[in-house]
Amino acid sequence: FMLTGWYYAFVIQRYSSSNRPSTSSNSIVSPRKSGVVTQTFDAMIDFRRQQARRTLLIHLGRSHSESELYKLCSRIGSITNMTLYTTNKRECALLEFSNEQSVKNLLKITSHFTNENRLPCVSRNLYFASQYTGARLKYPPVGREVQQPDDLLVDKALNDIHNVSDQIRYFWQKTKLTEVDTRLRYFVASLVEEALGSIFVDTVCLPFGSSVNTFGKSRCDLDMLLSFEDFRNKNIKFDGKMQQLRFLTKRSYLNDRFQAQAYLKILADTLKHFMAECTNVQIILPARVPIVRFQHRLSDLQCDVSMSEFKSSYYMSKLLWSLSSTDSRVAPIVFAIRRWAREASITQSAPGPWFSNFQMTLLVIFYLQSIEILPKLNYINEQYTTATTATSSFQDGIAANGDLSDDVILMNELENIRHIPANKANNSSLAILLKGFFSFYEKFDFQSSIITLLERQNMSKSSLIQAGKDKEWPIFVENPLVPSMNASKNLVESEAERFRQTCTKASQILSQSSKNLISLFEECRQAIPDDLIARAYPAPISIMPDLETDIDQEELTTIGHIQQEQIERAFDHSH
Ligand code: GTP
Ligand code: MG
Known about the structure:
- The protein has 575 residues and is of the alpha+beta class.
- It contains 18 helices and 13 strands.
- It has helices at 41-53, 66-74, 100-113, 151-159, 164-175, 179-197, 256-274, 310-325, 330-343, 357-370, 382-388, 406-411, 430-443, 461-466, 493-510, 517-526, 530-534, 553-574; strands at residues 2-4, 7-13, 55-60, 79-87, 90-97, 125-128, 204-208, 222-227, 278-284, 291-296, 301-306, 394-395, 398-399.
- The strands form 3 sheets. It has a 6-stranded mixed beta sheet, sandwiched between helices.
- β4 and β5 (90-97) form a beta hairpin.
């Protein structure tokens, strides 16, 4: 059985009569356990993407009809895994075939039987109308366990655990993304990929951010990146002579940003008018990174698709994933700190002049590096870094022509981080690490030092000021992909100071033996000053035109042009 956060889920695994699972083995097989080698981030991503392409999402019209569905689909091909979950009172099955051809065969038959008023589109979102009226089928034998995943219930259970380390681990286990969550995320990305794939042949859509970097909380948003080439396979060599033959194509926009907007508009229109289960489609063009936002109903996921900075987002996810994989304490401690920060209003759900979850994660990693639980990143030559990077030719490590900077190429070496054994010398418990985080930052001198994951001899702000890279930001969190660039330009002095004060408060709370994780959350929440609660933060600047108002290309251009300055200002505040 799986405890699934939001869902009630159970799983049916493929078995043969000679290999029947015992009732107790009705658990979802993780890629590692299923014998699939997921040694690297890329391998994990590839495995999940393939799995998603072999998967269908089926809404069961009648509860308990899963056995009937299973039996029916077995006629088409061999089923590797069937996972049931319930969301918004709807029971659904994620059904994975062992090969992609079975999915195609099934869709072919299904499209024949789907009523004639439908749009001429096929999707892997299906509905199952049960016809069975007798007693429930007993095939295959499955077990079911209902779980109460609500945050309140997790907190209630936490109250019954007295050891802070156990509380942190329990909190992480009960709130992290589950197998079903993960499968659904790759599934939705594969739907987007398929939706555009028939026009743009090499479409790739990858989840990134907390959906893949091990820091995802159940029900967190799904961030996706859209590209029209698989940039990860740049090394494939082709017969040079064939370059004489070229496609005739339309001319692309000279400005990458307008081109991305044009693609996203097509995506938004496609999702809105043709893709089953994709609702509330909005397009946010003038944001620094234009996005298409929508809701996928059967998975109940809030999704954002972006195009620009495709590669840097991917490498950032890879970096965080790699660091997290070196030591099993990293993810639980990040979860505890993120929750604390949310309770204390250090972070907010909307972007603004306060900390983001991403920045908070970098702070935790920097602390874990300082106590040698995590390695410093040493792929950068410091002299080279201060002198030449963050220059105009590269933005977030990507050149205008799409090539990766040397730094990002070196990011490919990140996988090696995982092979550095966790520091056995520092076997501090999670409780010690939590306390340590607060005492570290209450004493940290933000005025003169920078937060950096890179191995630098000189971590003083003054070294960056001399190199012309620092403008005296209240907090300088170095972007590990673009050395010398501040990834916390949005932070204002008052938020930085409040963070330090709240660390002091947290430190005091945890120094009392009677206090635990729940008291930490509660007392920090109660300590939020009234004027802060009342303060109305400015909403982030964004335009969300309804797609009914058709935006033609000229208007797109105008929006991009007029708002440019405003956008840049907004970006300075929100990123
Ligand atoms: P959630 O709050 O759970 O969504 O965490 P998240 O890590 O997914 O954060 P978010 O959705 O805000 O951002 C998605 C990803 O974009 C992050 O994981 C980072 O990889 C990247 N990202 C976010 N903010 C920044 C930033 O300020 N600079 C850079 N370079 N990357 C960022
Ligand atoms: Mg996110």
